[in-house]
């Protein structure tokens, strides 16, 4: 599983912050291409990895240049507010190691993330596809994430391409591939659909 | 009402009108709604979003999980407070 490690001298005070780009999701890119439009350039953002966040959320205005429309709404609970209605947007978050995750992010109200050095948070909607390792004594953190190549639960009917060879297989979850003949044994797992 | 809610006003009303029916047919799945039309239900949110963009393009449409009560997004850290 691809990973990246970030050393941050101020890890204790600032938390695990990563620099990503936020762009139009793959699905929206297809729609724009069909309409003869070019997707906007992804925007840079510094996002705090927050295991206490059920969703990823970005500050108001960050998505403006992407010219996306909402695909849903959600009520947001924070320590100081309850059920604040916010829009959900379909985006592609590209991580520092080049892998990406297509997900829906919440756009915060204008008062969100004011006076902070971050543009939003990466929540458990992204973390569910990876492994987060926090090494406080080394002031490092590592995120392993396969990105959208494994962005949905693998179904038993899926065919997995392993090292370029088709192999019918099944999967219990994103971290454990089970294929006939144990053909993953001793290999780096590289599963594509 | 926020701009987001305003742009999805009709879709949200359509969902409320059909919520009970959808609960009986596809509880836990994701429904795609455009205007006053229930397009279809899907196993995953991403499948519904993909189909929404494929059918309608880059316009507002609603994808939501079919549940008796809407599930909130929870942020435990004050960093996300507003």
Strand content of chain A: 35-45%
Find the structural class of chain B using helix and strand composition: alpha+beta
Overall morphology of chain B: globular
Between the first and last Cα atoms of chain A, what is the distance in angstroms? 16 Å
| Domains of chain B, number | 1
By CATH, the architecture of the largest domain in chain A is named Beta Barrel
Topology of chain B as a string of helices (H) and strands (E): HHEEHEE
* Count of β-strands of chain A: 15
Description:
The complex is a heterodimer of chains A (193) and B (82). Chain A has 193 residues and is mainly beta. Chain A has helices at residues 11-14, 26-34, 124-127; strands at 3-7, 17-24, 43-49, 57-58, 72-78, 81-94, 100-107, 120-122, 130-135, 140-145, 159-162, 165-168, 170-173, 176-178, 191-192. In chain A, the strands form 4 sheets. Chain A has a 6-stranded mixed barrel. Chain A has a 3-stranded antiparallel beta sheet with strand order 1-10-9, with no helix packed on it. In chain A, a hairpin with a 2-residue loop joins strand 13 (170-173) and strand 14. The longest helix of chain A is centred in the first third of the chain and has 9 residues, at 26-34. Chain B is an alpha+beta fold and 82 residues long. Chain B contains 3 helices and 4 strands, in the order ααββαββ. Chain B has a 3-stranded antiparallel beta sheet with strand order 2-1-3, with helices on both faces. Chains A and B meet through helix 2, strand 5, strand 6 and strand 7 of A and helix 1, helix 3, strand 3 and strand 4 of B.
Question: What does this entry show, briefly?
Answer:
Chain A has 193 residues and is mostly beta strands. Chain A contains three helices and 15 strands. The two termini of chain B are 17 Å apart.
Task: Annotate the secondary structure layout.
The complex is a heterodimer of chains A (193) and B (82).
Chain A (H helix, E strand, L loop, with lengths): L2 E5 L3 H4 L2 E8 L1 H9 L8 E7 L7 E2 L13 E7 L2 E14 L5 E8 L12 E3 L1 H4 L2 E6 L4 E6 L13 E4 L2 E4 L1 E4 L2 E3 L12 E2 L1
Chain B lengths: L2 H5 L1 H18 L3 E5 L2 E6 L2 H12 L5 E4 L7 E2 L8
Antiparallel strand pairs in B: 1-2, 1-3
């Amino acid at each position: 599983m691809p990973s990246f490690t970030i050393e941050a001298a101020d890890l204790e005070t600032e938390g695990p912050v990563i620099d990503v780009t936020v762009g139009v999701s793959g699905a929206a890119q297809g729609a724009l291409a069909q309409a003869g439009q070019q997707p906007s350039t992804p925007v840079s953002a510094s996002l705090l990895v927050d295991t206490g966040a059920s969703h990823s959320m970005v500050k108001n205005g960050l998505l403006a240049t992407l010219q996306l429309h909402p695909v849903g709404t959600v009520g947001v609970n924070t320590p100081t507010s309850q059920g604040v209605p916010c829009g959900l947007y379909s985006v592609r978050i590209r991580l520092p190691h080049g892998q990406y995750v297509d997900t829906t992010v919440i756009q915060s109200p204008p008062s969100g993330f004011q006076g902070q050095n971050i543009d939003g948070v990466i929540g458990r909607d992204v973390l569910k596809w990876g492994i987060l390792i926090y090494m406080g004594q080394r002031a490092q953190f590592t995120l392993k994430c396969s990105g959208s190549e494994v962005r949905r639960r693998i179904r038993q009917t899926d065919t997995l391409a392993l090292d370029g060879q088709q192999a019918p297989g099944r999967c219990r979850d994103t971290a454990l591939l089970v294929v006939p003949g144990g053909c993953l044994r001793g290999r780096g797992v590289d599963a594509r659909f | 009402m926020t701009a987001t809610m305003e742009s999805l006003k009709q879709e949200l009303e359509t969902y409320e009108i059909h919520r009970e029916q959808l609960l009986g047919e596809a509880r836990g799945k994701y429904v795609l709604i455009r205007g006053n039309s229930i397009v279809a239900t899907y196993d995953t949110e991403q499948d519904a979003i993909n189909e929404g963009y494929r059918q309608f393009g880059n316009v507002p449409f609603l994808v939501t999980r079919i549940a008796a009560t809407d599930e909130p997004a929870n942020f435990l850290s004050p960093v996300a407070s507003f």
